[in-house]
Amino acid sequence: MPSRRRALAGWLAVLAAATSLACSQEEEGAASPALGESAAAAPDFEVTRLGGGRLSLSQQRGKVVLIDFWATWCRPCIEEIPALNAAYERHRGDGFEIVAIAVDDPLTPEQLERWTAERDVRYPVGLGTFELAERYGAFQFPHQVFVGANGEILEELPPGMHTEDELEAAIARHLAPR
Q1: Which among 142, 114, 175, 124 has a CA at the least distance from the CA of 21?
Q2: Which domains does the chain have, with CATH numbers?
């Protein structure tokens, strides 16, 4: 009997690891609103931008924007950085922008700037809050939302890490060919 319990515990651990593709904040399991179902206006925001200044959604009008809600304590968020770097480098001259909003609290902008520099984050990063993420239906991280050039929500990707190919397919759905 003890070996069956160990086997069961082992399988449960494997299952838990396999399903942890997203990190949750305190409200795990909270339902996120279906933002992408209709052409809703994306809530504007203004946050402290790493490197100085402010970062807002309204500054990005005229571009397709991928808003990436993430946290430094979230392993899938960290693992996704290379795919986001690649997407940013490939499309930033095509009317596309990534705006990464870190929901870390109580990190200071200086601490977050050091953290992102150590991990070679190349796209714009701002220091936000859980409340801002919740306005976009983000209860698990990473959480990405595409916003169109007109400021309307185009698509909300399922929470969790996305591969470079998955990000490319999503970008292609929203970025007009040039």
Answers
A1: 142
A2: 39-174 (3.40.30.10)
pLDDT exceeds 50 at position 40: yes
Total residues belonging to the chain: 178
pTM above 0.85, yes or no: no
Q: In this structure, are residues 66 and 168 in contact, taking their beta carbons and an 8 Å threshold?
A: no
pLDDT tens-place string over residues 109-136: 999 999 999 999 999 999 999 999 999 9
Contact of 65 with 108, CB cutoff 8 Å: no
Residue in 173, 142, 164 with CA at minimum distance from that of residue 36 = 173
Residue 104 neighbours by CB distance under 10 Å: 18
25 contacts 70 by C-beta, under 8 angstroms? no
Half-sphere exposure for 122 (CA within 13 Å, toward CB): 13
Whether omega before 159 lies within 30 degrees of 0, making that bond cis, reads: no
- Dist CA 122 CA 84 (whole Å): 9
pLDDT, one tens digit per residue, over 41-53 is 999 999 999 999 9
